[in-house]
Fold these 4 entries.
Entry 1:
Amino acid sequence: MSRAAPLLLALVAVAGCTRPAPPVTPPTPVMETPRRVALITAPQGDAEWNALGDEAAALLAQYLRIKTTNPPGNEIVAARWLADLLRREGIEARIFEPRPGKANLYARLRGDGSARPLILLNHMDVVLASPEYWQVDPFGGVVKDGYVWGRGALDMKGEGIVQLMTLLVLKRAKVPLQRDVIFLATADEEIGAGVGAAWFVEHHADLIRDAEFLLNEGGTTRANGRGGVDYYGVGTTEKSPFWLDMTVRGTAGHGSRPTPDNPVHRLIRALQRVADWSGRSPLIVTPVVDRYFRDLAPLERDTLARRWFADIGAALRDTMAARVITADITYNALLRNTISITGLKGSDKTNVIPPLATAALDVRLLPGQEPAAFLAELTRVIADTAVTLRPQGPNWSATESPVDTELFRAIVAAARARHPDAVVTTPMLAGFTDSHYFRRLGIASYGIGPFPLTQADSRGVHGNDERLSLEAIRFGVRFYYDVVTRVAAR
Ligand SMILES: [Zn+2]
């Protein structure tokens, strides 16, 4: 004991040294109160639009200072802040508080009713941030080096603010609308359950059921880093979660006398088969993914890749090409049902063989895949009757919105107006957003990315140093307004 203690202390000291030093944050250059841009008519020139972009940036800095890390979320504070802002502009907002501290906010700008409403959907909650890895306070609303920094800048308070600005500009300029524009800010997106969009759709469907369209996160506008845009990615469909609990029962006992049916050993053998299979499970080209690769083909500089992408189905029949393409984890996720083994549980005590052992499998299915068929296939792969698989957590089948709609055409037109040569494509999302709740009500729902971002710019999503440039915000405010007015203005 006395010998071990100094070693332990030494280890702790070493561990302490390897942690990054706490950031030396210079005095936070806090942006002043947002300067409200008054409007008599719809904004015209660059100067007016830039001023609106700067107002949005200042609002975003304020919004990022409201800590809505989920759990617990505490979205009520954000909802009250948004409601105050809207009320000052003469827009009534309703706050729903399903549970203390949890909130959804709903506001509706009236049109003449000749067309059905458009919903602007955004979530107020964010994931956690570890300040020791950030250059700035993630909840400081810091503005420096031409960026607004903070947890949620990209996912998705930035887009929420751009939606809000769209509403404010429509209201200030008294733009005549043919459809109502609904602003819906929700809780609990980041935990994939709870009392956010799912709760709202279940309890207040009457407030949104008449909507024809919805805009949400889940799109990408890919900047090329040279001032241009490679492509506008519009989210029309997502993979669906099919999370599984895997359980093995055996005989409990003392760890000193091994038993042949130790459930932990059996679980590990089964998981090994699952892990092996997940890397060689069937490759499936859905129509959306086929189109996506074909759209991206002209952007590929490599001749071989260009040929592969032009006909991804044919390329995947070549073993070598399939190996290269699926080595990219994003492409891999678009081309097969995936399994990530994420949780393991056996005994709490080293010397006790537990009566059961469990694992958690994060399974994601491509649109059109039958969960029951997948489960049967996995059971065949595991080939052990002592192993049971049980669906748990979020489970729903994938939904898709059509592309032959007025809103989709409006997005394409707004994109082409800015970048005539940019590709507009429909990448399938490997993860999921709240859009599926609304697609199931028959509302055509699209993910759009209002900010042109390079791959490096996007790294802050759920990561460190999440930030959004003032330039991107200016672009986003104008782009979003353009999309919305193309479909909603009279
Ligand atoms: Zn999000």
Note: The pocket of zinc ion is lined by residues 123, 155-156, 189, 217 (CB under 6 Å).
Entry 2:
Amino acid sequence: MPFDLVIHNGTIVTVNPEFEIIENGIICIKKDKITRVAAVADDRPPPQAKEIIDAGGGIIMPGLVNTHTHLPMTLFRGLADDLPLDTWLNETIFPAESTHINSESVRWGTLLACAEMIISGTTTCCDGYFLEGDVALAVNDFGMRAVLGQGVIDYPAPGVPDPAANVETAKAYVVEWKDISSKIMPSIFCHTPYTCSEETLTKAKSVSQELGALFQIHAAETKDERNRFLSEYQMTPIDYLDKLGILDQNTLLVHCIWLNKADIEIIAARQSKVSHNPESNMKLASGISPLSRLVNYGIPIGLGTDGCASNNNLDLFQEMDMAAKLHKASTLDPTVMDARTVLKMTTIDAARAIGLDDVIGSLEPGKQADIVIVDTNQPHLVPMYHPESHIVYAAKGSDVRDVMVAGNILVRDGKLLTVDLDAIIDRVNEIASNIRV
Ligand SMILES: [Zn+2]
């Protein structure tokens, strides 16, 4: 049999460099890789394969990439809303984490996050949390692709009671997970420039450089953070990180809201990447990132949902819609953040932001078969003039019909095939009943 899997009878949104859209297209897969992407004549039967999927005239697109999450925080979904970031963190989230986050709760919170992401079309995520070895075990068992960052912070944290051991713990985790699975890329996640000391930041960066791991950090998220750095160091947070040597092409800066022109020029010059999380930024009233200016500087940007406690879901379709509209409204310019630009921020540009653009992010021969089929035979998706417009402005995560990662079908007809979703929901509800008390 020439192919293991063939997908046909759909409109392929390739997100290749030409942004080719192929009506009545066909995708052939051998093992974990895409081997052919082409248009087929109506009268020709699909090539032979062990399995053939009829896309039913829907959209066939790359699996979505979420560039910033805190997976186990699904456990805190809706626990504390409508609060400023510092109150939300210090009075609710940090206390809840210190009491309720352990290996067991991390595993079930992560499995719930994976279930939510995969059924809504996200095949890869970039995470930062504590007990990340347990996160990695759960994501690996689930079969998703992920960059997973062990959290580093100068306070006692779940799994790291002594902050003096924070960087060593992260290093040991990256070393352990480096070659375990081709789908799991271990990383280091420093919490913020103000919850990690200068020494912690530089040590963590040098470990990430030594091991070739992505370095992630929340940065320039709030006005308070910027003012604090200006008054303490007479520098912006971005300038401060740059002076410490943190910024390079393997650094992912999350949020980047409070930036001046010099900050944007530094990020562009260092070839650092940015994760933009519009729903979290809006919900915590952190502000609006100057995204169209970052785009104009050619900075690779991926969208992220942030954790479930500040969003409160992991649906990237919703995030795309929000990102496109937020920046039009804030700049009074309907031409910014057009559908193609936004779709690239959850596919190829998101993959670039986390260092995986050679592997995923578009449907092209040689790439991994991380593929989503969207059911467009629904009232809110008819008619279809431009598929990318439907993806960004009209579709929802619940319109996703089939999902595969590395050629493995994880979702078919909207149902998870490889895990017991009821068992995950029951276990998370059980854990949540203690958090609520
Ligand atoms: Zn975050």
Note: The longest strand covers residues 3-13.
Entry 3:
Amino acid sequence: MNTKQLKSIRDAEKASHIEIYSTAKLFESGSWLQKPVKTVTDLIPYFSNYHYINILDLGCGVGRNCIPLAQEFKGKCKIDCVDILDFAVKELNSNSINYDVEKEINGLVSSIDDFQITPNHYDLIIAISALEHTDNTDSFKNKLTEISNGVTKNGIVCLIINSQITEVNKETGQELIPQFEVNLKTQELTDLLNNAFKGWEIIKSTVRNQRYDIPRKNCISDLTTDVITIVARKIYN
Ligand SMILES: C[S@@+](CC[C@H](N)C(=O)[O-])C[C@H]1O[C@@H](n2cnc3c(N)ncnc32)[C@H](O)[C@@H]1O
């Protein structure tokens, strides 16, 4: 993908997220922001004995997952929350005040590519529907390495990534260019993840074919994807 194509996808993607975040409030019933991702909240018991937890949420959005984690670990966690969209981070900051977790939430406007993950620092790193928005496949692979190095011993990585995405104009049936910077084949992505977390305890590993309607410029897109979930625990140093 050249720079012009990247810019075009990123601009469309940003506009789409502004639209989504403007039309639904965090935890609004009936919206996709209604509740946190269960795979994320299922991880809470793993940290019940921790006195303090450092968490990283890459592509955090308006706080659907990090705010419930901050509530759960109130007074004993810091969550670095990274999003490329200043609109999302502003909403996140205001949500963190509304849910009384502003001390725990550290909102950062940055691309995932530019955010350097400190090695051996985080007890939990989550990236939910976010890593497919890194600049390109090489950048994605580098970030995967940074993520695995960024986790402490017994720390957990929880990734949900879309692969093999297709988009079609819902009204006309016309094929659209998927608005994702990284759109790997499911097998290729599965191989990359298996390699990145070789020797780790695999807590969850699933591939689910899903279909969504999502707003795009001037149309609704009928999107199909293989959603890959991997939750892995670093059982060595
Ligand atoms: C599908 S949303 C998911 C948000 C959140 N993880 C959740 O589950 O509610 C993807 C988020 O990633 C952000 N994003 C997209 N590209 C990004 C990038 N290159 N770097 C950082 N954030 C990015 C978007 O602004 C958006 O908030």
Note: The mean pLDDT is 95.
Entry 4:
Amino acid sequence: MTLMLTPNYPLAKYTWLGVGGNADYFGIVDTFIELKEFLKTNKQPIILLGAGSNILIRDGGIEGVVLKLGKEFQKINVQGDTLICGAGTRLSQIAKVALENELSGFEFMADIPGTLGGGLFSNAGAFGRSIKDCLVEMRTLSFDGQEKKYTDFSNWGYRHNPLSNMIFTGAVLKASGKEKKAQIQSVMDDYHMRRKATQPQGVRTAGSTFKNPVGQSAGFLLEKSGLKGYKENGAEMSSVHANFLINRGASGNQLEDFVLWVQQQVLAKQGVYLEMEIQCLGRR
Ligand SMILES: Cc1cc2nc3c(=O)[nH]c(=O)nc-3n(C[C@H](O)[C@H](O)[C@H](O)COP(=O)(O)OP(=O)(O)OC[C@H]3O[C@@H](n4cnc5c(N)ncnc54)[C@H](O)[C@@H]3O)c2cc1C
């Protein structure tokens, strides 16, 4: 099968913030072979799109090809205490399969609304655990179609994966142990309640806007700068959790301008440069 690309494809619907222009070309790639074949001949820049829960696409859209990982990349194969997962798998699905198999250590993934690919990109995590803590092997393809596997994750850190400029195709994840279903479920329920109590619900957001600086909380610094609940032109820093950017009708460029202004405010008032956690992609 040859990968079919659609020109001038609207991307906003694929993102949690619901903004952004069109991709020059867009395709959903269903098999590993299809992807490899495409990479051998492709000459255009490529951007991978997961669940769009950590990106802000600018109004001018994305140059080149935007790819989403389809069917074959959404499978989970359980082998003992390891899960072999395609990078298009939802993190919530990994947590669900782990629960069904009484494997613990994946509870933190249950409410992170991204895919494994997006999670690998940022070493997503919550409640003191991150993807790195479960990783045994990461499977990748270079943009010219070369396969490579990684097994050393010692230099990964908080929201940091040092490997970039490649396609994450899958990973082997290992449970931290065996537990009764009810125990795993109760940990998930606890995490879920804690999120509900501290994070905005049912809004257009991309999760944490900025990374926490070492030993500090981005949310607290934003709050101290008077930005909790601050809004302008349809962009808002949540009144529930100051580090959550909410879109109430802004465009991609307006959201980015707002976030950059917020970043400047914190620098001026607290002397701390907040590094973006959200990925801003595309042309202005
Ligand atoms: C309500 C809410 C709560 C959240 N809570 C958390 C949380 O607790 N912890 C946390 O860490 N994050 C959290 N996030 C942010 C987000 O869900 C995670 O960062 C998630 O891992 C992003 O995955 P995604 O599939 O949506 O990636 P996308 O947003 O689609 O992409 C993010 C980046 O990853 C790249 N990428 C995606 N797939 C691949 C691939 N296969 N190969 C190479 N690069 C790829 C993209 O090009 C992009 O640069 C939250 C977001 C929301 C909206």
Note: The first strand starts at residue 6 and ends at 10.
